[in-house]
């Protein structure tokens, strides 16, 4: 059978890499059963318009070897047969965050790693900011569920949660532009403060934690890069409260290429206690 999908004078074989004899099916978008065909090296007399949906004249759906491919007017994107969910998308964004950083945690990068068309993500998240919010909420979920007795305890735990993942402070800093998440964080901190200044105290403490942690994490990652260490490994090891080191260093113990994970924690806690004691003094 002749190749049934010529595009711009090119056959599907030459343009999309299907070998002659490959079986695939083509159908009108969500309107009819798939029609099986066999790829051939020649062009076809079948017009692609015969298989286009009236509402989406530039969209064709091609199935081959268990994959779905969405064809636009100029490009074809391979799409895996995956059941997308918010949880799966967030897990994928976290994986990208750990390995590449926040700058690479884009909708296009997430969709590429999942093997789906970028537009598929927008059924679950309306934009990148919504994905950032959900990813930050996942990182902070254990902290949000924990009850804290004191402000220093809550602030230190929040700091550790952000330091535990690459670009964690930057991620949360971007997410707190969402007033709902910002209010949730503030409420947890406010619950540790007594008196009439609990809300302003919580806001002040939150800003301090975010700013201080962002500086600390930036310094850690810069030192990791200079030492030739993996930033993702540094964050993971810092979560465990140990010095971050390269694999060779861990086994031989001969190199000094390490990153101090929390050298500034004492200074950080001193700042939190200053806020805490100031709030207490206002109530006297």
UniProtKB/TrEMBL annotation:
Keyword DNA-binding listed: yes
An annotated Gene Ontology molecular function: DNA-binding transcription factor activity
Occurrences of domain HTH tetR-type (ranges): 83-143
Gene3D superfamilies reported in the protein's UniProt record: Homeodomain-like, Tetracycline Repressor, domain 2
InterPro entries: DNA-bd_HTH_TetR-type_CS, Homeodomain-like_sf, HTH-type_TetR-like_transc_reg, HTH_TetR
Cited Pfam families: TetR_N (PF00440)
Annotated SUPFAM superfamilies: Homeodomain-like
Protein name, entry field: Tetracycline repressor protein class H
